[in-house]
Design brief:
InterPro entries: ATPase_AAA-3, CbbQ/NirQ/NorQ/GpvN, ChlI/MoxR_AAA_lid, P-loop_NTPase
Domain ATPase AAA-3: 57-190
Largest sheet: 5 strands, parallel
Strand order of the largest sheet: 2-5-8-1-9
EC number: 3.6.3.-
Order of helices and strands: HHEHEHEEEHEEEHEHHHHEHHHEHH
Keywords: ATP-binding, Hydrolase, Nucleotide-binding
Family: Belongs to the MoxR family.
Number of strands: 11
CATH class of the largest domain: Alpha Beta
Shape: globular
Number of domains: 2
Length: 337
């Protein structure tokens, strides 16, 4: 590849800026459509959208009845993606998700196997209550999320693109759940905490969802356009200060890297995937908020959803009642100086 001349670089930069401005308009339209049916919960909508715009998967954690499922089906409509939903249960088998081989017999009596694709062959998969399924079934889904194909009877079947999993999980104190192992949690770009709505939003929910006609969201994008925006996000330049902030934040969350508080409180910290997630999501957040370049503020605002499922506390910290969120908040305060 030849070296770019300065005029080519300027042209290239202009093209990226023009594409980003086009994307800003698309994202504003997405926000408007989602806002018609999901009230309040701005940070939940934003973080879930950031995961999708960054090309990744999100884990939504919250008690039942907070419109997690509704958010996912709304995003399917708005983003023009075909979607399917799997309700995870303790007796769910990997083949219920991936699909299976069935035997066919033609009129001559010749038998052959045919692959019948499971519900994972979709663009937006809602994995409801993922922590209710057995580890074996969870790992079948998580392998597909990582490799973008499904292997059945030794043959790989590619998943459609784009492919996103939005999984929901109830807080782990509930009975009959299998917590996701750390290596599998790491597959999720973001963990999105879904809290109860505030008073204004809850009032609006009561008024607008108990009548005869409910508002409906319309389509704002096509799947192809979504992929163009995902590619654009990967092309957005990240400044040196933002890059340094990402490295400093991720490394400060690991024990043995010179942070005395972390050494005391954190048993193991985030790996390189956390930095990759921050690089992608900071760019997506800038676009989502109408800006053309990510800032250090974007990185710090994403610290919790990116890091909280990628680190574990020491026994001593847990005994003191310290939570992962407390540790991250303290690292963010240090980073702000």
């Amino acid at each position: 590849m030849g070296v770019m001349t300065s005029s080519e670089a300027a042209l290239d930069e202009k093209a990226v800026v023009a594409a980003a401005e086009h994307a800003l308009a698309d994202i504003a339209r997405i926000r408007q459509e989602v806002g018609k049916v999901i009230f309040g919960q701005e940070s939940v909508v934003e973080q879930t959208m950031l995961a999708v715009l960054s090309g990744g998967h999100a884990l939504l954690v919250g008690v039942p009845g907070l419109a997690k499922t509704k958010l996912v089906s709304t995003l399917g409509t708005v983003l023009g993606l075909n979607s399917s939903r799997i309700q995870f249960t303790p007796d769910l088998m990997p083949s219920d998700i991936l699909g299976s081989e069935v035997m066919d017999q033609d009129e001559n009596g010749k038998r052959s196997f045919r692959f019948v694709p499971g519900p994972i062959f979709t663009q937006l998969l809602m994995a409801d209550e993922i922590n209710r399924a057995s580890p074996r079934t969870q790992s079948a889904l998580l392998q597909a999320m990582q490799e973008y194909h499904v292997t059945v009877a030794g043959r790989a079947n590619d998943l459609p693109r784009p492919f996103h999993v939005l999984a929901t999980q109830n807080p782990l104190e509930q009975e009959g759940t299998y917590p996701l192992p750390e290596a599998q949690l790491d597959r999720f770009l973001l963990q999105v905490d879904v809290h109860y709505p505030d008073l204004v939003a809850e009032r609006r929910i009561l008024l607008e969802t108990t009548g005869i006609a409910e508002a409906e969201a319309g389509q704002a994008l096509t799947a192809e356009r979504l992929q163009e925006i995902q590619t654009l996000i990967r092309q957005m330049p990240v400044g040196e200060t933002v890059l340094d902030a990402i490295l400093a934040l991720v490394r400060s969350a690991r024990p043995g890297h010179g942070n005395a508080e972390t050494d005391k409180q954190v048993a193991w910290g985030p790996g390189p995937r956390a930095g990759q997630a921050l690089m992608l999501c900071a760019r997506a957040r800038a676009l989502y908020e109408g800006r053309l370049a990510p800032s250090v503020d974007d990185v710090l605002a994403l610290a919790e959803p990116v890091l909280q499922h990628r680190m574990a506390l020491t026994f001593a910290a847990r005994a003191e009642g310290i939570s992962v969120r407390d540790v991250i908040a303290s690292l963010v305060r240090q980073a702000r100086g």
